Amino acid sequence: MKPYCFFAHVAFALDARGHASPQATANLIIEINDTTLTSCGNKKHVKVSALTDSQKMELAGEIAMAAALDYLKSEEEFRQFPTQRFVNFDLIRPTYISIRPRPNKVLPNGSKVWRLAQSEADKLRGEPRSIRYPDIERRLAAHPFLKGMSPHHLELLALCAMPTEFDAGQIIFLEGDPANGFYLIETGTVVLEGKTSDGQSVVIDTVSAGEPLGWSWLISPYLWHFDARHGGMYCNLSFWDNAAAASGRWPHP
Questions:
Q1: Residue 46 counted as domain residue
Q2: In angstroms, what is the C-alpha Rg of the chain?
Q3: In terms of domains, do 94 and 13 share one?
Q4: Taking a C-beta distance cutoff of 8 angstroms, is the pair 236, 182 a contact?
Q5: Which residues are CB-neighbours of 106 under 8 A, at least 6 positions away?
Q6: Which of 41, 94, 123, 193 could form a disulfide with 48 if both were Cys (CB 3.0 to 4.6 A apart)?
Q7: What is the CATH number of the domain that holds 149?
Q8: Same domain, yes or no, for 101 and 141?
Q9: Closest C-alpha to 217, from 111, 89, 90, 86
Q10: Is residue 29 one of the residues assigned to a domain?
Q11: Surface-to-core class of residue 156, CB atoms within 10 Å of its CB (0-12 exposed, 13-18 middle, 19+ buried)
Q12: For the chain (length 253 residues), average pLDDT per consecutive 10?
């Protein structure tokens, strides 16, 4: 299987208002191969071979986002900036990797990160997105959370949304992991679970159809605060691309 390759353009500022004219930027390519995908899937108790292509791509995106954040945290030049924003985070053709030098960083899980010069990054900004669904705007307009949103804004959101399906009991995310998705639940339920002092799981809340999942992305340190598990088979529209970046942060629950 060909690796998943993502292009990330990240802006840094001393405060949230500075993103219009950031003090620093970073352009990255992140490669996620089949071994990394399977290994990270196992940690989430997900059988990667049973996932659809869109589910595999979403999982690869989560891993790539975490890899990008790990790399940026390791670079001293970015530590002075308290705020960061992913202006672009796009799936690209893996052919770009074949002409790259050795990666700037290889994570323990096998994720590879390359740092790009601005001139190279400009070539990638016109790359097409990976998946489009013709009915996505209709589904967004039908969701209660977006009731009353203008057609223009629905069109913009549709460029950043991806339909996703999960099976009963499947883990969506785990407490402490980097948060990188915002969900609009269409059918079914999601159970949010915390841990007691003796490590036992306890249900904190249940999120149902017609509701959003991912509100605490507004709150530092931008990590998942709970485990999320599917209470039953359901469909949702997930946003893990520029829709989150437009709000100033990637989503976190």
A1: yes
A2: 18
A3: yes
A4: no
A5: 112, 113
A6: 41
A7: 2.60.120.10
A8: no
A9: 86
A10: yes
A11: middle
A12: 86 65 86 93 88 87 91 90 80 63 90 84 54 69 90 74 79 83 86 88 90 78 84 61 37 36
- pLDDT (tens digit per residue) in 173-224: 888 888 777 888 988 889 999 988 888 889 989 999 899 988 776 677 778 8
How many Å separate Cα 229 from the centre of its chain? 17
Look at residues 69, 103, 124 and tell me which one is the last residue of a structural domain. Answer: 124
What is the maximal distance between C-alpha atoms in the chain? Answer: 53
pTM of the model: 0.52
Which pLDDT score, from 0 to 100, does residue 244 have?
Answer: 39
132 CB-near residues (< 8 Å, 6+ apart): none
- Both 240 and 140 in one domain: the answer is yes
In a domain? residue 180: yes
Alpha helices in the chain (DSSP H): 34-43, 53-74, 118-124, 136-142, 151-158, 242-246
* Residue 11 and residue 85 share a domain: yes
The Cβ-side half-sphere exposure at 90, using a 13 Å CA radius, reads 17
Structure tokens at 135: 């009915």
* Domain extent at residue 67: 4-124
